[in-house]
Amino acid sequence: MSASTESYLSHARYGKDKVRVFRVVREGSFHHVVEYNVCALLEGEIDVSYTKADNSVVVATDSIKNITYYLAKTSPHILYPERFAIHLGTHLVSKYAHIHKAFVTIEKLRWARIPVKTGVAGQEETKLHPHSFYRDGDDKRVTSVEIDATGGKDKITAKVTSGISDLLVLKSTGSAFEGFVRDEYTTLVEVNDRIFSTSIDLSYVYKPFAVPAPSDEKKLVVDLTGKHAEAGTPWDGEKVAHSARKITLETFALDESASVQATLYKMAQQIVAENPYVESVTYKLPNKHYVPVDMRYIGIDNLTPAAAEVFVPIAAPSGLISATISRK
Ligand SMILES: O=c1[nH]c(=O)c2[nH]c(=O)[nH]c2[nH]1
């Protein structure tokens, strides 16, 4: 059989990635800040730009960047990553007749208010500073929004997936790994106490929903009154983000872990149970191994779990445990 030499364009998507944007929202001297890395990609009737070198259908990626900055300045949703992503995606598909889908991903970097002591000696209190911030972690809140206008510009739908990336955690006990398959390939020793460390990658998928028609022709601001602003939906975003982070960290800390798999499942089940607008939860958890140093060369026991105190953090390889837990 000879393979066909012909080919066709089966998929095309383009846009701007790594658009870095910082926004300050001032309430007098009390400021709110956000820092985002934005990726905005488009699909639609763009095939000829690939197949016929016809750029007349191309909204320049530079313009996509400029729209991102324009909305960062004008959108009332800028402080909320889900809402801002929905707004940006809706703007893109509404503005251009031949663009039918927008894919907006936003990484939100952490800026927390600096706690400062105020008041006179003896009556000091700690307050969060109104306009000074520090980076209180390398983890990022992530949201990926798919805006679909294929059914018409007045029938836009959204699929929102949000979560956390790069949340590095470690516990020095409360983790075991026993009872696994033992055969001729097994060298791992069963332990009832070990170090458990992982860099949490969490994503949760909201129920798809219809985007209400924009109320303003130019800014395409989505009206967020009534049911659209309900807590727990992606219009809110904050409630689920807070719940998911709290459940993840508390379960990691409190669980007497039988394995990464079992701890993962407990976390995900709780997120589904506590957040009715979430359809499914996916964790990807690298098992970052810490191996006790064998000190028998100097006659010291550093290997049995109770005596193990000096460990080598192993950069690679790591385990990689993942699963999706879905609402029934
Ligand atoms: O929690 C664990 N799950 C595994 O599947 C596994 N495999 C392994 O070598 N160590 C671990 N730990």
From TrEMBL:
<dbReference type="InterPro" id="IPR002042">
    <property type="entry name" value="Uricase"/>
</dbReference>
<feature type="binding site">
    <location>
        <position position="61"/>
    </location>
    <ligand>
        <name>5-hydroxyisourate</name>
    </ligand>
</feature>
<feature type="binding site">
    <location>
        <position position="287"/>
    </location>
    <ligand>
        <name>urate</name>
    </ligand>
</feature>
<feature type="binding site">
    <location>
        <position position="260"/>
    </location>
    <ligand>
        <name>urate</name>
    </ligand>
</feature>
<feature type="binding site">
    <location>
        <position position="287"/>
    </location>
    <ligand>
        <name>O2</name>
    </ligand>
</feature>
<dbReference type="InterPro" id="IPR019842">
    <property type="entry name" value="Uricase_CS"/>
</dbReference>
<feature type="binding site">
    <location>
        <position position="287"/>
    </location>
    <ligand>
        <name>5-hydroxyisourate</name>
    </ligand>
</feature>
<feature type="active site" description="Charge relay system">
    <location>
        <position position="289"/>
    </location>
</feature>
<dbReference type="GO" id="GO:0004846">
    <property type="term" value="F:urate oxidase activity"/>
</dbReference>
<protein>
    <recommendedName>
        <fullName>Uricase</fullName>
        <ecNumber>1.7.3.3</ecNumber>
    </recommendedName>
</protein>
<feature type="binding site">
    <location>
        <position position="61"/>
    </location>
    <ligand>
        <name>urate</name>
    </ligand>
</feature>
<dbReference type="GO" id="GO:0006145">
    <property type="term" value="P:purine nucleobase catabolic process"/>
</dbReference>
<keyword id="KW-0560">Oxidoreductase</keyword>
<dbReference type="GO" id="GO:0019628">
    <property type="term" value="P:urate catabolic process"/>
</dbReference>
<feature type="active site" description="Charge relay system">
    <location>
        <position position="16"/>
    </location>
</feature>
<feature type="binding site">
    <location>
        <position position="177"/>
    </location>
    <ligand>
        <name>urate</name>
    </ligand>
</feature>
<keyword id="KW-0576">Peroxisome</keyword>
<comment type="function">
    <text>Catalyzes the oxidation of uric acid to 5-hydroxyisourate, which is further processed to form (S)-allantoin.</text>
</comment>
<feature type="binding site">
    <location>
        <position position="261"/>
    </location>
    <ligand>
        <name>5-hydroxyisourate</name>
    </ligand>
</feature>
<dbReference type="GO" id="GO:0005777">
    <property type="term" value="C:peroxisome"/>
</dbReference>
<feature type="binding site">
    <location>
        <position position="194"/>
    </location>
    <ligand>
        <name>5-hydroxyisourate</name>
    </ligand>
</feature>
<feature type="binding site">
    <location>
        <position position="62"/>
    </location>
    <ligand>
        <name>urate</name>
    </ligand>
</feature>
<comment type="similarity">
    <text>Belongs to the uricase family.</text>
</comment>
<feature type="binding site">
    <location>
        <position position="260"/>
    </location>
    <ligand>
        <name>5-hydroxyisourate</name>
    </ligand>
</feature>
<feature type="binding site">
    <location>
        <position position="261"/>
    </location>
    <ligand>
        <name>urate</name>
    </ligand>
</feature>
<dbReference type="Pfam" id="PF01014">
    <property type="entry name" value="Uricase"/>
</dbReference>
<feature type="binding site">
    <location>
        <position position="194"/>
    </location>
    <ligand>
        <name>urate</name>
    </ligand>
</feature>
<feature type="binding site">
    <location>
        <position position="62"/>
    </location>
    <ligand>
        <name>5-hydroxyisourate</name>
    </ligand>
</feature>
<keyword id="KW-0659">Purine metabolism</keyword>
<feature type="active site" description="Charge relay system">
    <location>
        <position position="61"/>
    </location>
</feature>
<feature type="binding site">
    <location>
        <position position="61"/>
    </location>
    <ligand>
        <name>O2</name>
    </ligand>
</feature>
<comment type="pathway">
    <text>Purine metabolism; urate degradation; (S)-allantoin from urate: step 1/3.</text>
</comment>
